[in-house]
Write a structure and sequence with these properties.
CATH architecture of the largest domain: Alpha-Beta Complex
Helix content: 10-25%
Largest sheet: 6 strands, antiparallel
Number of helices: 6
CATH superfamily of the largest domain: endopeptidase domain like (from Nostoc punctiforme)
Oligomer: single chain
CATH topology of the largest domain: endopeptidase fold (from Nostoc punctiforme)
CATH class of the largest domain: Alpha Beta
Strand content: 35-45%
């Protein structure tokens, strides 16, 4: 599905959109409609079209509609002093019903709506049914538009508008999910609740799991779930986990910008983030307790994700980098792990870069000062956790990031 350029809808919803002034006229228009027909905003190069109070370009602007927006013809055509044709249209937005005049040059016939869209005619609520994979909410009606959020299977969304068809004939719907407006492929929306609708405290693990628990992948219709590099739906996948497999939970829930909850989990030595809607509580015995010392370091370290960065801090009220590793190692081992980074790098045994395992200490040089200057715990998949001024908190960084890869020094494994 190729890109059909469309402006962000946020401006329309807020009633403040001023996307275009005098738009360049297209070479031709293909509109031939009757009163009561529907038409689509088109030919605006993604700028959208102004809805005016009268059929001429000097009239006031009521709002601006993005390309792809569906309208209903109320009257017209009317011809202005420049022989340009105008149609009076009506459309529903979050502001309510908008009635005004639009140049015929920027209206097109709505393409034949795909069969799957016909099932939603008249529906204001639809349910995601994507075979357990969830559905992406996008800025515009094509796969090339940016992902705004992910919508788990079974979730109810409000259908705001229909009739968006890309050049390949794929139908899209404008929907509202969790307060965010965007576009989703209509083929994955149904009127009846999807069979895999998450149920609170059963298939949606948010708020019911914590560090050290185990959870079972479920609610995916047998497809399994993606283990992602970061806690967001558009992050890269590091692995996939089959339905029914148990994972060890390594963090308390983390909520992304769209309100989706995620857990860091590990299975078969691979660590990543799993959407909470596809986890249920597993066996009563947490597998992480039977793991290696390094896994215990990781589990404890992740429990302090987001803790404030404090220079010279070595307590949960705030850590610096070596204060963080000092606190976690001694918490797990009850031992006498040194506080100074110069002594920490001399502890344990050296580990080659290509043999790193979760829980290994990774050291860096030339960060805020020359020489040895930073330390954290390796998490797996090229990531590590540390107390860093980069986040002004305990956060997760990528070893492959140019900044960190250029400053990587060595790693040590504590026996």
């Amino acid at each position: 599905m190729m890109q059909c350029r469309i402006g962000r809808l946020a401006g329309v919803a807020a009633g403040t959109a001023l996307l275009c002034g005098l738009l360049a006229l297209p070479a031709s228009a293909d509109l031939n409609v009757d009163i009561g027909d529907t038409a689509t905003v088109a030919y605006t190069d993604g700028d959208g079209v102004n809805v005016r109070t009268a059929p001429n370009r000097s009239a006031g602007i009521r709002t601006t509609l993005p390309e792809g927006w569906v309208v209903t013809i109320v009257s017209g055509p009317e011809t202005d002093d420049n022989d340009a044709r105008w149609y009076e249209i009506s459309t529903e937005t979050e502001l309510g019903t908008i009635i005004g005049w639009v140049s015929a040059d920027y209206l097109s016939h709505v393409n034949v709506i795909a069969d799957e869209q016909q099932a939603l005619n008249g529906a204001t609520i639809a349910y995601v049914a994507a075979d357990g994979d969830g559905l992406n909410l996008r800025e515009g009606p094509s796969l090339e538009h940016a992902i705004i959020s992910g919508i788990p299977d079974g979730t109810a969304v409000s259908v705001l508008s229909q009739g968006f068809v890309d050049e390949f004939g794929i139908a899209w719907s404008m929907v509202s999910y969790d307060g965010t407006v965007g576009y989703s492929a209509t083929m994955f929306l149904v009127e009846a609740p999807a069979a895999s609708t998450p149920q609170a405290l059963e298939t949606d693990a948010f708020g019911t799991l914590s560090t050290g628990d185990t959870a079972e992948v479920s609610g995916t219709d047998g497809d399994g779930v993606m283990l992602r590099a970061e806690p967001r739906i558009d992050a890269g996948a590091v692995s996939s986990v089959f339905e029914g497999v148990e994972v060890a939970i390594l963090s308390d829930p983390v909520v992304d910008a769209q309100g989706n909850s995620w857990y860091m989990a590990t299975v078969d030595g691979v660590t990543g983030w799993v959407h909470s809607a596809y986890l249920t509580r597993g066996s009563a015995v947490p597998t992480v307790q039977a793991s290696t010392l390094g896994d215990l370091f990781v589990s404890e370290a992740l429990a302090y994700l987001g803790t404030a960065y404090v220079w010279a801090g070595s307590e949960p009220e705030g850590f610096d980098c070596s204060g963080f590793t000092y606190y976690i190692v001694n918490l797990v081992t009850g031992g006498t792990f040194p506080r100074a980074i110069e002594e920490q790098i001399a502890s344990g045994v050296a580990v080659p870069y290509d043999e790193l395992q979760p829980g290994d200490l990774v050291f860096f040089e030339n960060t805020y000062t020359e020489g040895l200057s930073h330390v954290g715990f390796y998490l797996g998949n090229g990531r590590f956790i540390s107390a860093t001024a980069e986040f002004d908190a305990v956060g997760i960084s990528n070893l492959n990031d140019p900044y960190w890869s250029a400053r990587y020094l060595t790693a040590r494994r504590l026996a």
